[in-house]
DNA sequence: TAGATTGTTAATCGATTAACAATC
DNA sequence: TAGATTGTTAATCGATTAACAATC
């Protein structure tokens, strides 16, 4: 399957499809875009286009074979190919991504956490959190593809710079500031504030006092 | 300031502006859209339009008075008006939002956490996590506007239903499944998988093996 | 054949970008 | 006046939606 340009919205819909199809009863062999759209309250055409982009298993009258569709979506999401990552953050925040795997397969393989407030190693579940000073030594014998920034606003750029100079190819930024990264590094920003604001605005629209 | 239609991207940019302006040296009294755009690597026109939507303090030749702009953005984001919320989740996941305030003012006032795996109350920082059974009794004497779903995929719809019937007006969903909510309830989905996939795709585009 | 479904092509909608007029 | 900046109006771009042709 070729990599074509896809919208953020489509990316967000994909895992929803995947989870929905997985919850279908075993005896369901095929599923159509129409049925998925109705079940999930989405536009029929959107769903059909999305599926067409990731799978060519669609048959007239039948829809898509569930098994094949699951495989195709998973392959599109690339969750088989692990991406090594480390998280830098403060205290409890760290544990978010250290335990994210519980949600479902994301393809992210979080190797360790780093905490500036920590003086000695600590273990959360199966993951180790190191003091931030050990960031450099940790990278010495490992390839780490992605750095996740969960630090305070003040520490974010510094930690980002260190990770970049240690060779990460991508930065996943959870802080609400702009990070400067070199051209060759991919930056993905996550904005909780934007989500909360969106929620608030929709509440206001329906006349809620917020 | 009237509430106009705004894009998700604009919502995501707002907190970035806010944090940037706050880091300016004290003696900077005015800031222009041009300067912000250059500093943050954004399009000049986008920034100007964004600012025009939230503030009318713009002056030709000068730009915006920093203090006023900060106030206007904060007012747009609504961070003074707290929205009461509870989080339902499993184990460590919960702590994400229980400690989110450290990131910056979000306007979200998280009253408590609820964990299905917990048998008795536990305290994280200043927040209490209760066993999930106590959800109903907790709502008895409190108005809770927003329910945050950080549960496992399997528990999500059930917890969502309970929160809705207890009267929340909005659901902030971190699980990768479609939640059914009544028309009058606002649903905001957060998709980590989509973000990770986007990151992965951009890495692939630049020829990274992922 | 009729009906359900796919996939494609055209139309609509909305957001971003570009061009420009207005102002201090 | 010239220049920096704002704000507005028009053009472009991309995504979603609608309409339709193709297939089993």
Describe the structure concisely for a colleague.
Helices cover 39% and strands 19% of the residues of chain A.
Short descriptors:
seven-stranded mixed beta sheet; DNA-binding; alpha/beta; 8 helices; homodimer; two-stranded antiparallel ribbon; globular; 210 residues
Structural write-up:
The structure is a homodimer of 210-residue chains. The first copy, chain A, is of the alpha/beta class. Chain A contains 8 helices and 9 strands. In chain A, the strands form 2 sheets. Chain A has a 7-stranded mixed beta sheet. A two-stranded antiparallel ribbon of chain A has the order 1-2. Chains A and B meet through helix 1, helix 5, strand 9 and helix 8 of A and helix 1, helix 5, strand 9 and helix 8 of B. Chain A binds a DNA duplex (24 and 24 nucleotides) through helix 3.
Radius of gyration of chain A: 20 Å
The multimeric state of the shown protein is homodimer
Shape of chain A: globular
Distance between the termini of chain A: 46 Å
Stretches of chain A where pLDDT is under 50 for at least 5 consecutive residues are none
Helix segment tally of chain A: 8
| H/E element order of chain A | HEHHEHEHEEEHEHEEH
Structural class of chain A: alpha/beta
Name the beta content range of chain A. 15-25%
Widest sheet of chain A: strand order? 5-6-4-3-7-8-9
Q: What portion of residues of chain A is helical?
A: 25-40%
Largest interface, with counts of residues having CB < 8 Å to the other chain, equals: A-B, 72 and 72 residues
Give a count of the beta strands of chain A, DSSP E runs of length 2 or more: 9
Mean pLDDT of chain A: 88
The largest pleated sheet of chain A is described as: 7 strands, mixed
